[in-house]
Write a structure and sequence with these properties.
Strand order of the largest sheet: 5-6-7
Mean pLDDT: 93
Distance between the termini: 25 Å
Order of helices and strands: HHHHEEEEHEEEH
Number of strands: 7
Shape: globular
Helix content: 25-40%
Largest sheet: 3 strands, antiparallel
Strand content: 15-25%
Radius of gyration: 19 Å
Length: 216
């Protein structure tokens, strides 16, 4: 959390200010497409919530929280799509549930990928993130209760453990949701996978102890 907040400060020249907030907001909304419906072929999709960088109370504190995942919300589909754009070279594709359609005569029509945004990150940053995320798994797979990494697979990813919000405001101190986001395929990722576990009854971080073992 401290490291994420420090990075946000660098966007403002060393401080959390309007420049930092608007820069980070631009990345969340216009690069990673958070706070927007993906328009996947499914009803009742939620857009999530990203706070306005210029209007509201306690914006600097609020944006410090968003840097490590509090004070904002996103769906697993949004997060998985954003992750894919980071590791595929920087292109955000509209997520879809339909690979192809077949009409009554048996003619097939492939559902071609639709580009929503380019240059989400630079190709160089994408390659760096692949290596970083692979290093996270390689160095911590025992912590994640992964008995061993699957042979012939290059895996990268990151855990996430989030306090559960109280209905009356604030967060529970002893209840967490866990997530593990990752990819398979090395320099040319083939699959992006998001595992979420709500309020698991385990001892330890929900991300590393509950979600990560399911991913592997």
């Amino acid at each position: 959390n401290t490291g994420a907040t420090w990075l946000l400060m660098q966007m403002g020249g060393g401080n959390i200010n309007e420049k930092a907030r608007t820069t980070w907001h631009d990345y969340m909304v216009n690069h990673y497409q958070l706070g927007k419906k993906t328009k996947v072929e499914q009803g009742y999709e939620e857009p999530g919530y990203i706070p306005d960088p210029k209007k509201g109370y306690g914006l600097n504190i609020q944006y410090a929280n968003t840097s490590f995942g509090q004070g904002m919300s996103a769906t697993p589909l949004q997060m998985g799509s954003a992750l894919s754009s980071v590791v595929n070279g920087g292109t955000y594709y509209k997520p879809t549930l339909v690979d192809k359609t077949v009409n009554n005569e048996g003619a097939e029509k492939n559902n071609k990928p639709l580009v929503v945004a380019k240059d989400v990150v630079s190709p160089a940053t994408s390659k760096t993130m692949i290596k970083f995320l692979e290093g996270v798994v390689e160095k911590n797979y025992q912590l994640y209760k992964m008995k061993q990494l699957r042979s012939n697979y290059s895996i990268g990813g990151k855990t996430g453990t989030a306090q559960i919000a109280r209905p009356e405001g604030g967060y529970y101190e002893d209840r967490f949701n866990g997530m593990f986001m990752g990819f398979v395929g090395g320099d040319k990722p083939e699959y992006g996978i998001v595992v979420g576990v709500n309020d698991p009854r385990i001892a330890g971080d929900a991300g590393s102890q509950a979600a990560a073992p399911i991913f592997i």
